[in-house]
Write a structure and sequence with these properties.
Distance between the termini of chain B: 45 Å
Low-confidence stretches of chain B: none
CATH topology of the largest domain in chain A: Elongation Factor Tu (Ef-tu), domain 3
Distance between the termini of chain A: 5 Å
Strand content of chain A: 35-45%
Oligomer: heterodimer
Structural class of chain B: mainly beta
Number of domains of chain A: 2
């Protein structure tokens, strides 16, 4: 699987070939540095470990500093491993936006925006009670029954209830790469990508 | 504040297009392309008053809302003015209005729905 680490910059839109307006997410991707090469002989599987986004040396732990020194790369903030990378690279070399081509379909992985404590209507798409009047009290957005009584005498595990929503890893599949601007390491992907602006996004392609 | 990278992308991809300057209250004709069956292209005109301009001069996605009264029925269309599907825009009349969004026109009809024309000083 080939891939690259990037940062979500924001969204914009432009006019495509047939005059249709395309909504795109701008991702500043790479250059990513190879900090470790895993091989079948040594590690049991093959992978490339990539690092992205410069970190202040004072904020990096000693063990990590040593790890970066091994590959001769300045300390970075984000490290991700990609299994079975189809492109061969040695320690300290870079992965740039040119591993992708325009028109290719990729998956985007990010951390979704935190929504806080949300009720079941927003969090799980429950329909609520339905009516606002006709004797309805204050249970408009209530979940309703969460199970039977004496049997089973408990609430089943995984019952969908209110709680924290968002802030979890989300993968969006098959986003089309509309444009690549190698001068500024930008990739324009059609559609929305999880996370707020400035958050890390992993673009991968099987 | 727009992100400098977003600005860069917009500068790269923005269509290079000349659009005449007009404001809310102006009467314009928008010539736009429509695709008929069999991939045939035809240009159609829409003449009406601009009742809203959305997006600043740097915004590549700015739109205008044009209103006309056709057969006693009000018709409004939103045009992304930098779209390649818009052939050209003609300004017919400059209107004299006191606000930027002329939604009050929707409630008016007949004589009261007219917009006064701005008298330009004629150079001698």
């Amino acid at each position: 699987m080939k891939g690259i680490i990037g940062k979500k910059v924001g969204m914009t839109s432009f006019f495509g070939d047939n005059g249709r307006q395309l909504q795109v997410t701008v991702i500043e991707a790479g250059p990513c540095y190879v900090t470790q090469v895993r091989t079948v002989e040594k590690d049991g599987y093959s992978a490339l470990q990539l690092a992205f986004d410069d970190a202040k040396p004072k904020n990096v732990t000693k063990p990590l500093k040593g790890h970066f020194e091994k590959s001769g790369v300045t300390p970075k903030k984000k490290i991700v491993e990609f299994r079975d990378f189809p492109i061969e690279r040695n320690l300290g070399e870079t992965i740039e936006v040119d591993i992708f081509t325009e028109g290719e379909k990729v998956n985007a992985i990010g951390t979704s925006k935190g929504k806080g404590f949300q009720g079941v209507v927003r969090r799980h798409g429950f329909s609520g009670v339905g009516m606002r009047t006709h004797g309805q009290h204050n249970r408009l957005r209530a979940p309703g029954s969460i199970g039977a009584s004496s049997f089973p005498s408990r609430v089943f595990k995984g019952m969908r209830m209110a709680g924290r929503m968002g802030g979890v890893k989300v993968k969006v599949k098959n986003l089309q790469i509309v444009k690549i601007l190698p001068d500024k390491n930008l990739i324009l992907v059609r559609g929305a990508v999880p996370g707020h602006n400035g958050s890390y996004v992993i673009l991968e392609k099987k | 504040m727009i992100n400098p990278l977003i600005q860069y992308v917009q500068d790269q991809l923005a269509p290079q297009k000349e659009v005449p300057s007009f404001k809310s209250g102006d009467n314009i004709t928008v010539h736009y392309k429509i695709v008929e069956e069999g991939n045939k292209e035809r240009i159609q005109a829409f003449r009406g008053d601009v009742i809203q301009v959305k997006g600043g001069p740097d915004n590549p996605n700015r739109t205008i809302t044009v209103r006309k009264v056709s057969g006693g029925i009000g018709v409004e269309r939103v045009f992304p003015i930098l779209s390649p599907n818009i052939d050209k825009i003609e300004v017919n009349k400059r209107g004299k209005v006191r606000r930027a969004r002329l939604f009050y026109l929707r409630k008016l009809s007949g004589k009261s729905a007219r917009i006064k024309e701005k008298r330009m000083r004629v150079a001698h």
